[in-house]
Amino acid sequence: MKFFLDTASLKDISWAAQAGLIDGITTNPSLLSKQAGDLDPRDVLKEICSLVDGPVSAEVVAVDTDGMVTEGKELAKIAENIVVKIPMIEAGMVAVRRLAADGIRTNVTLCFSFIGRLDDVGQEGMDVIREARTIFDNYNIETEILAASIRHPRHVVEAAMIGADVATLPPDVLKKLLMDPLTDRGLDQFLADWNKLVARAKAAV
Ligand code: E4P
Questions:
Q1: Residues 124 and 175 in one domain
Q2: Host domain of residue 171
Q3: How many domains does the chain have?
Q4: Which of 24, 31, 65, 97 is least surrounded by CB atoms within 10 angstroms?
Q5: CATH, residue 69
Q6: The pLDDT value given to residue 112
Q7: Three-state SS for 138?
Q8: Confidence band for 111, pLDDT divided at 50, 70 and 90
């Protein structure tokens, strides 16, 4: 399973890219609005694209087909690794087909496979991923399943067990995947033992 980072934070993206932990980035208007401040969001996207080799999803804000296509084409000019993100609405489906015909890659969002957002309203978000995997496999559908709205490391494990192609994680969940109290305890113990050795060596001189 590939890991994407669901953020527009240049700091988090830079760290995760340098650590070789991510295969791409997803953004959305909310995430870009938080990061961009007074900057032009296209400049932020350009910077993100320069930090990662993989796909960087940039979402349109138009809600009509022509608007989405125009905006999608503009976004695609920002960098070669831009993937145009389109909401799952009727107009969006036509826009996806038109952009794809022009060779522009797309990522359909809000199609309600958002795991955490379904969990938040008392549903079992992971069922959508499970059903999509089975249906796509039954019919050899080539589109990749991107598990989004991941809230915690168990979501990542479950999505991987089901066979989602990609999980897009907020930076805090990626960092939680690296955290374990037993690691911290083990490291403390190793360092304490090592310091005892150093102290003994000093005392012996
Ligand atoms: C997906 O398209 C969104 O960018 C994102 O994964 C939604 O996650 P959230 O529910 O944590 O906002």
A1: yes
A2: 2-179
A3: 2
A4: 97
A5: 3.20.20.70
A6: 73
A7: helix
A8: confident
For residue 85, indicate whether it is catalytic: yes
Residues 162 and 190 in one domain: no
The percent of residues above 70 in pLDDT, for the chain, comes to 100
Helices marked H in 61-180 — which ranges? 65-78, 90-101, 115-120, 125-138, 153-162, 171-177
Pair 108, 184 in one domain: no
What DSSP string describes 36-74? HTTS-HHHHHHHHHHH-SS-EEEE----SHHHHHHHHHH
Tens of pLDDT along 129-175? 999 999 999 999 999 999 999 999 999 999 999 999 999 999 999 99
Q: Are residues 200 and 144 in the same domain?
A: no
7 within ligand 1 shell (Cβ under 6 A): no
Q: Say yes or no: CB of residue 57 within 6 Å of ligand 1.
A: no
H or E stretch covering 12: helix 10-18
Same domain, 188 and 127: no
Nearest one of 47, 45, 92, 85 to 67, comparing CA atoms: 92
**54 with 120, same domain?**
yes
Residue in 11, 77, 85, 175 annotated catalytic = 85
The reply to whether 31 and 73 lie within a common domain is yes
In angstroms, the CA 185 to CA 85 distance is 43
Size (the chain), residues: 205
Q: Which residues pair with 85 in a beta bridge?
A: 59, 107
